[in-house]
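user: Please supply your own:

assistant:
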Amino acid sequence: MIFTSAVLEFNKDSYKKLLPFIESHTEVEIYEKDIDAGKIILVISTEDDAQLEVIQKSFLASELVIDFTYHAIHFGESVDKLIDGEIKIDFEDINNKKKNKLQ
């Protein structure tokens, strides 16, 4: 499980339209909101990072949303698997990527 918090910025006049959109995402909960400031703190629980990316793209594509930014991410069991050696990171792949030098 991946647990994430995100800041959602919106036009305060669109809050009533935005609420059903947020509620349509079953993985998303409202943690705190300041309607006058046009900001909502969301808590998101997903099985993997691909699902998290789908949610992010959905929010960013909405005309009701001004911005959607992650505040914190906890990778849960993935971190435990990495520590226990069940997941291996392929550093060769990372090292073989083309590097852009600063000009």
Q: What stands out?
A: The first helix runs from residue 15 to 23.
